[in-house]
Amino acid sequence: MSSTTTQSGLGRARRGLAPGGSGTAPGKRKSKLSAQATRTFFWLLLPSVVLLVLIHGYPLIYAAVQATHDGNLLQTGNFVGGQNFATVLTSPAFWKAAQFTLWFTIVGVFGSWLVGLGLALLLRTKIPAGGTFKVLLLLPWVVPIVVSSTAWNWLVATPDSLIPSLFRNLGMGTPLFLADPNLASITVMVFKVWVSFPFMMMMISAALASVDTTVYEAASMDGASRWQQFTQITLPLIARSTYISWILMTIFCVNDFPTIYLLTGGGPVNATTSLVVLAYRTVFQDFATGPGVAIAFLMTMTLVVISVILYRQIRKSSVE
Amino acid sequence: MNATSEQRSPFSRRGFLGLTAAAAAAPLLAACGGGSASQGGGGGAGGTVKFWDMPWATPAYNDAAKGIAEGFNGANGAKASYQIIQWNNFYQTFSSAIASKTGPAVSTGGGFQAFQFEQQGQIAYADKVIEKLKSNGQFDDFLPGVLDPFKSDKGYVAVPWQLDMRVFWYRKSLFEKANVALPTDWPSLLEAGKALKKVGAFGFTTGAGAGNNYANHSMIMMMVNNGGGVWNKDGELDLMNDRNVEAMEFVLELVSNGIVDPAAVSYTTDNMSAQWKDGKAGYGLFQVNVPQRVGDTSGDLLVADPIKGPHGDKATIVFPNNIMMYTNTPSQEASEEFLVYYLGQLKQLWQKKLMSALPVFKSITEIPEFANDPNNVKIVKDWQPIAKTFAAQGNKLNANLAALDGGQALNQFSQTIITGKSDAKTALQTFQSGLESVLKK
User: Fold this and answer.
1) Is B29 within 8 Å of A54 when comparing Cβ atoms?
2) ipTM more than 0.85?
3) B chain contacts of residue A270, beta-carbon cutoff 8 Å
4) Which of A209, A282, B131, B343 is deepest in the core (most CB within 10 A)?
5) Across the interface, which of B117, B408, B416 has its CB nearest the CB of A285?
6) How confident is the model over A167-208, as pLDDT tens digits?
7) CB atoms within 10 A of CB B419
8) A288 interfacial to chain B (CB closer than 8 Å)
9) Which 3-state string (H, E, C) describes chain B?
10) Do B267 and A157 touch (CB under 8 A)?
11) Paired strand residues for B163
């Protein structure tokens, strides 16, 4: 077997083609609609567009007004320009929350992706009681977050909870998972991965299901090792799904309020305060509406930038 | 590649159209929100008074309160409807409803909510209610001092209906096991804490986890118990006074001696209740009705005596929860009539033993269902007379107290103290700065 042959086989496989497939790209069809049809489409779409604008546009504009004024939830107050943004950006609490949000997102996205990928690959193999296993794996995603956070609280909160007791019995001291700032940060991130991996697993499973298994046979015949098949076939073929799931999970992590708030409330001493928790507390505990909304705006802008970058990756992967 | 430019162009058009339509729709929606008068409707000329209530105790409480509210039958056929509002995001719920004029005519709520909405012109003053209470004899039935905090320059902002008080509780068997006397002052609290630690219990039980304000309350209580407080007598911020510093140094001493549970910083109220139930909590600040709350009515959980600070001061904190009326009502007369009626029926809630708070009326403290509990009697006799509000060292409630109660600054401060991560002065300084940044100028 020559390496040229192998690369060629892998190249075809990466494009999702069975051996001997034609290789014709899906159609670059350009349909020209008649003026009448265009008008019909416009009128049919109009109600949805109006609803979307009302539902998304109005709150956005009202939020922009709040972010530039010094009022409260009932009264808009006086125009203060970018003062709320300046207040937020010069606040150490904002940057501490931003730092935690970054780590929470990185661990949440890649942790849940890795676990989800591993389990999705495992589920492709024939394992005993696979159906039951799949249902059990979906439980963390299915169970309401308030229930799972309460369960996690029972597991780790007090020195006599199950997990600290296990550590103690193993002679490893009594870790205070939610009381120590570093441990609390780690616990919240692990909780997020635990809650999120089923979503990743399902996304990856769906992507894997669409892969023609003959590409693996072809690659195998060409002498590709398991690792080469994984890195040269599996990963490229699920790349689109991966990028989409990363975009979604990034948004889920950055905007995740209940996971953090229910488990730690953002403590101890702000160690697990993310930007969304900070925004909530600023608006609804400190009643500082302008700065709170400014935080939310900054988060939205960051998410838009990240989404655009990842969206470009999706398009690149589809062009390949 | 051409696809890029082809895709960008329609996106831009859509974005422009969306923004234009949104801009156009904004005043329309604002007009819709502002114009909807939802009060009234049905119930005759007096209308239906919307009464919003919080889950102050178990669901049985809300069932009973609903029964009382819906039993209202006012002049001109006025009726009342009842709605439970959850504590989560309650301020947002009230604000958005009031802004859209779909809010209540009368409500219970956060301890300082009436003052917040008064600032925004949404509160109807209760002076006529007070007049009616004077004429029907209920005014003289109020416990001393409970009404005064609600009197502003413009009138009574709300009427109190229950007192959410913080008192020290102890587990008798643990004190016997530790062979130590009940604390009567700060040095004996320290000694008791050390003795309780030897038997595996904590002598200053508290918690500062998600949704748990007891550590916040414990910190302010210790300041007030030492003659200090967050504000001076004129209502100005006064956190750095010597009494506060001394109080926090004492709490830090409790922490460094292991008298405060090291995990307490993360405890929810359920975690804290479990510590009391499981015999880990020997002594600490809690609310009224602790045995019922934690599920141990064996008689081992008892109200302790008030303790004396190093300068001889004795005090605790109390939240005079209140009922407020709003300007958006089908009939102000009906709102007032309903409030007088509701206050007159409160006794039922204590007769049914549904409340985890003290009543504001002397007559209710005397009913057998309340007075047969020696813990209740002790609280009324020993603790109520020394109770001060969050406004201490002053005594006038105001909207600024909402920024203190449950705000980020206090929560961070109490977490800092009970983890022992700072000295008292630094922690107080940070607290003061945090509070200053959110107080209304």
Assistant:
1) yes
2) no
3) 412
4) A282
5) B408
6) 999 999 999 999 999 999 999 999 999 999 999 999 999 999
7) 22
8) yes
9) CHHHHHHHHHHHHHHHHHHHHHHHHHHHHHHHHHHCCCCCCCCCCCCEEEEEECCCCCHHHHHHHHHHHHCCCCHHHCEEEEEECCCCCHHHHHHHHHHCCCCCCEECCCCCHHHHHHHCCCEECCHHHHHHHHHHCCHHHECCCCCHHHEECCEECCEEEEEEECEEEEEHHHHHHHCCCCCCEHHHHHHHHHHHHHCCCECCECCCCCCCCHHHHHHHHHHHHCCCCCECCCCCECCCCHHHHHHHHHHHHHHHCCCCCCCHHHCCHHHHHHHHHCCCECEEEECCCHHHHHCCCCCCEEECCCCECCCCCCCEEEEEEEEEEECCCCCHHHHHHHHHHHHHHCHHHHHCCCCCCEECEHHHHCCHHHHCCHHHHHHHHHHHHHEECCCCCCCCCCCHHHHHCCCHHHHHHHHHHHCCCCCHHHHHHHHHHHHHHHCCC
10) yes
11) B320, B358
| A305: closest CA of chain B, how far (Å) | 16
Question: Which pairs with CB-CB distance under 8 Å and at least 24 residues apart come from B248-252?
Answer: B248/B219, B248/B222, B248/B223, B248/B417, B248/B424, B248/B427, B248/B428, B249/B423, B249/B424, B250/B186, B250/B190, B250/B222, B250/B226, B251/B204, B251/B218, B251/B219, B251/B222, B251/B417, B251/B418, B252/B417, B252/B420, B252/B423, B252/B424
Neighboring chain A residues of B117 at a CB cutoff of 8 Å: 74
| Residue whose pair of structure tokens reads 């669409």 in the numeric block | A210
Burial of B356 (0-12, 13-18, 19+ CB in 10 A): middle
B316 vs B224, B319, B405, B422, B431, CA distance in Å? 7, 10, 15, 25, 21
SS (H, E, C) B90-140: HHHHHHHHHHCCCCCCEECCCCCHHHHHHHCCCEECCHHHHHHHHHHCCHH
The pLDDT tens digits of the residues spanning B134-192 come to 999 999 999 988 998 899 889 999 999 999 999 999 999 999 999 999 999 999 999 99
Q: How far is B297 from chain A (nearest CA, A)?
A: 23
At B124, the amino acid letter reads A
- pTM, two decimals, is 0.82
**Please, which residues 200-259 of chain A have a Cβ atom closer than 8 Å to chain B?**
none
Cβ neighbourhood burial of A48 (10 Å; 0-12, 13-18, 19+): exposed
